[in-house]
Amino acid sequence: MTETMRQDRPHGHLHELLLGELFELLGAENQLLSGLQRMADAAHRDALQAVLRLHLRETEMHIERLKLVFQELGISPRRKKSKAMEGLLREAEDLIDELADTPAVRDAALIAMAQKVEHYEIAAYGCVLTYAELMELPEVSALLAQTLDEEKQTDELLTEIALEVVEP
Ligand SMILES: [Fe+2]
Ligand SMILES: [Fe+2]
């Protein structure tokens, strides 16, 4: 984009940043669908399995909401593969294999991995929400804030389960 084009459009730099992050979030959420399924299947405790399965349904909603965001912005959705999410999910996969014989320890490790994933999403949605607010896009902001809330709630639920699972 040329400097003249940027000047023609208010918030030109932010617009680019916002789109880049949104493409990556759409990639990350899609990658997470199979990751959460795998983690839920590997969870031993019912409570942990339930939270992971619930969040799998919510993740499907997050993808739908991102599509609505793109619709609001008049942009066709594009997925960019998230290397961060790929790394986190690969790490989770390794732990699932390594801790196959110790279900309680594996649950604790799964909680830690799931929280790392949520913290990544919280950071990413926090950024795009700030951009959208600065760009004065209330509809987009509302959609992103809704998803951000669900990511935070999941993180809190995982902490609650961790306190039950992880014994000193
Ligand atoms: Fe999400
Ligand atoms: Fe999430």
Automatic annotation (TrEMBL):
UniProt-listed SUPFAM superfamilies: Ferritin-like
Pfam families: DUF892
Protein name according to UniProt: DUF892 family protein
Species per Swiss-Prot/TrEMBL record: Sphingobacterium suaedae
